[in-house]
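Priority: medium. Attachment 1 of 2:
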């Protein structure tokens, strides 16, 4: 294992390897990060780390609010994350590769990145214009019976899709064939299911692919049963989450 240091982008969501992450970047700390990433040659990866926030705010406050309108606002790269930012984040995250970084006329950025590999936070540094983190790569082990579990998960996921389509009163359109490689299946299903952040985080940091697939199989069966009782549900894109405003 080789420890690396990368820019750190905390979010109120979980990024999985292979999944697309669109970002609308307007905070100065993250704008500074993007300006630095743009210095990387185009033929080299423009990498940063994404972690889910455990305790803190994705977007720092810009004006005093209730209950104390005279309170002094936090400034700097660690604003909103307390005196020790490491404690504010989940310890397992994902490295992202920014395929597109486009600066708008007002100095904000549109970014399109893709999750690549899992990593574990070792330390967080807040002395520069943006947060950086020391990271250890987190290998993905297949575990026992990953192939058979992936087939079961895909079957259950198709039933889940059908139930969602019925609850939304719309026709089912997957747009593409689903993959069959166990690791890819496990991440796609984890990202596509309508789950809260702690549950998605649990799936991300599963000890191996088989463990993640077993967990997903239980969740799919449970969620599919629940959907039967719901009259309508919001739409969910299977490979791309909502744009994060930062």
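Attachment 2 of 2:
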């Amino acid at each position: 294992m080789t420890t690396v240091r990368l820019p750190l982008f905390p979010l109120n969501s979980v990024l999985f390897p292979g999944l697309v992450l669109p970002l609308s970047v307007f905070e100065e700390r993250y704008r500074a990060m993007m300006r630095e990433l743009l210095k990387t040659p185009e033929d080299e990866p423009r990498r940063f780390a994404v972690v889910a926030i455990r305790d803190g705010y994705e977007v720092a406050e810009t004006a005093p609010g209730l209950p104390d309108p005279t309170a002094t606002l936090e400034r700097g790269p660690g604003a909103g994350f307390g005196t020790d930012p490491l404690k504010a984040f989940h310890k397992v995250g994902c490295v992202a590769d920014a395929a597109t970084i486009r600066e708008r006329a007002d100095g904000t950025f549109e970014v399109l990145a893709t999750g690549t590999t899992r990593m574990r936070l070792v330390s967080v540094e807040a002395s520069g214009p943006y947060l950086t983190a020391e990271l250890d790569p987190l290998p993905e082990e297949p575990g026992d019976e990953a192939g058979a579990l992936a087939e079961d998960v895909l079957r259950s996921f198709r039933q889940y899709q059908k139930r969602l389509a019925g609850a939304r009163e719309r026709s089912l359109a997957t747009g593409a064939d689903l993959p069959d490689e166990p690791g890819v299946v496990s991440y796609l299903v984890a990202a596509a299911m309508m789950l809260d952040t702690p549950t998605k985080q649990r799936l991300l940091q599963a000890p191996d692919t088989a463990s993640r697939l077993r967990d997903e199989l239980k969740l799919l069966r449970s969620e599919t049963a629940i959907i039967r009782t719901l009259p309508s549900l919001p739409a969910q894109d299977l490979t791309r989450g909502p744009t994060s405003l930062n």
